[in-house]
Structures are given as C-alpha cells and as structure tokens.
Here is the input.
Amino acid sequence: MNKTKSRLRRSKKTRLRINQSGLPRLSVHRTNLHIYAAIFDTTASHVLVSASSLETEVRATLSESSGMGGNTSAASMIGKRVAEKAIKAGIKKVAFDRSGFRYHGRIKALAEAARESGLNF
Here is the structure.
C-alpha cells in the first residue's frame, strides 16, 4: 500500500462519518504548489463556497509576499478567505474534512485561520 492509497483510505472513513453528521463539509486538498478549500453540502453534494491559491486576488498577494501557494502563509490566507465567504453565505458550522492528510503544517494553518475568522468545527 503506497502513500496515496493510504490517504484515500483514511479520507473515505472520515467522509462517511461527516455525511452522517449532516453538517456542511469543509474539504481541504493540497499539492506541492497550491492549496484548495471548499465547503460542500452533504445532502445535495454540491459546492457552496470555495477558495484556492489559484484565484487571481490571492495570487497577487502571494506574489508580493513569498512563494506561489505551497506554504503555511498561503494556507492561512485561504482559510481566512473561505471562512469569510462561508459566513457571507450564512454557513457558520461545518465539519472539517482533511482528506486523509495529517493535521499539521498547511492543513493546520488553514484550519486555525478558518476558526479565527469565525467558522465553528
């Protein structure tokens, strides 16, 4: 079993629990260069809110500071951005889906920034 299969196995288990809770799901995905966050409606399976390091406004701010989007400062910026969009859309409580990634580094920075911006999970 390789690294990717293990991550996907862990993510399936958590998604089943999250779907049973009935809360919207804040899903996070990371690559070496970018980080993505989206809030899904578990009942209808569609995206309510999303943010990523590929957005033009985010890229402009990241190019001024450091790197493209593969660091903790970019992750915290995305966490703050997705939380602001969610609160604007009327979503205050979500279930955090880390997609099988470990809760450290960029994933942790995104989660903490979303919590500080007002999301509850």
